[in-house]
């Protein structure tokens, strides 16, 4: 027969009571926190999985913040570009109005005044800042104002050509900025005729227009030169040359020969040289770039200074209007192309945003299944454990009072 001492009875009873009390406390903690796993010892396997899920949720939340930042920046840029198009469209309407031959000098001055206001509005849009105060069109130079007005009144770009990129998911990056130089400055310029400084007084070039783009490409085998040089010879003929080659290449004209005062075409470009003397030179600038600010500035200057009192001034004014319209159209096209590019980025951001949201929901669901407590089960366990603990306490109290002296 095995003998059990009083010490063993007391030690075993106390140990059992402590065990039951610990289980009861754990159940109470689960109910109060709403978590089934409050420490790794509660369920080591589930705890390890919960830790990995927490890390995944942290990763997703970081990328969600990046997605929201990218979305806000792209939306702000898109809004600024839309405002720019509205301003340029109004400038174009004023340019068409200015080309009306029946307008008086006062009418042109009135148009010039509004153009100055529109130019300032465009500069304000190009100097848009994000909520942190950085200029969105300054490239990497976010703290530097994108466009600054120089002493001569012209607007000059001060940023760099950097483009900020943000990671919005593992291995997925999206540009969140565009520099103002690519949008507002390097805009293709209409083909223009420029007369040399030493030309005879009264000579001028007019009617410059690209009549056949394919002919321009074919004339140079696809490699379009920066300019074409026009020179008046002793017979009053206009000789066209491509001086980018050595020696210079003479270009065919239609009709041939081209003569002063009559329209002719060279490499798909129609042009008229008037009142020129032998030796006078003109340049057809083909591949130049010009900022939209410079286009409006030139238009304002022309409205303020040019009249139509002579054939030359009238031709210059008409050329100014035609070139301005072409340049404004090019500026609008440049912005629209950027808007199209922005649209693609915004679609990518939206898709990634939806993916991250789905991933977050799925991960939280799995985490909840592993960690969250089943209140019905927990409350049932609590009642049962409480009952068992009370029974054990009463039993221990009864046993602890047993003694041999009670039988003597």
Automatic annotation (TrEMBL):
Chain's gene name: flgL
Protein name per its UniProtKB record: Flagellar hook-associated protein FlgL
Homology family: Belongs to the bacterial flagellin family.
Ranges where the Flagellin N-terminal domain occurs: 15-140
NCBIfam families: flagell_flgL
InterPro entries in alphabetical order: Flagell_FlgL, Flagellin, Flagellin_C, Flagellin_N
Residue ranges of every copy of the Flagellin C-terminal domain listed in the record: 326-402
UniProt entry keywords in alphabetical sequence: Bacterial flagellum, Cell projection, Cilium, Coiled coil, Flagellum, Secreted
